[in-house]
Design goal:
single chain; about 130 residues; mainly beta; 4-stranded antiparallel beta sheet; 11 strands; about 0% helix
Length: about 130
């Protein structure tokens, strides 16, 4: 496992933007994902990215508004969130899964696939 630290959450008005960051404690060949959990709801997949950054996936609810990216030189994954809506309010979690050389183009959408999780960062969108 690796330690993951999220940052960048906060309070923003509807229509605004935030950029979340997820920094890993050590360099490891990982696929990464962002998940979120709103009060009273189950954790849900938001976005995933393969190790190379070439392939990404998004939940339909955030497609065309959110962008996941990575900078492997900095051991950091990002989630750019634009056109935020009140229903995006949740705690956002970063996750990591180690991959081998033959899986560098693969992303993962299930939480059970990941072995490392951050502590979460709160995103609140006011109407």
């Amino acid at each position: 496992q690796v330690q993951l630290v999220e940052s960048g959450g906060g309070l923003v008005q509807a229509g605004g933007s935030l950029r979340l960051s997820c920094a890993a404690s050590t360099a490891r060949m990982d696929a990464n994902g962002w998940f979120r959990q709103a009060p009273g709801k189950e954790r849900e997949f938001v976005a995933g990215i393969c190790w190379t950054g070439r392939n990404t996936a998004y939940d339909d609810s955030v497609k065309d508004r959110f962008t996941i990216s990575r900078d492997n030189a900095k051991n950091t994954v990002y989630l750019q969130m634009n056109s935020l809506k009140p229903e995006d309010t949740a705690v956002y979690y970063c996750a990591a899964k180690p991959v081998g050389l033959f899986l560098t183009q693969t992303y993962y959408t299930r939480g059970d696939d990941y072995d490392s999780w951050g502590q979460g960062t709160q995103v609140t969108v006011s109407s």
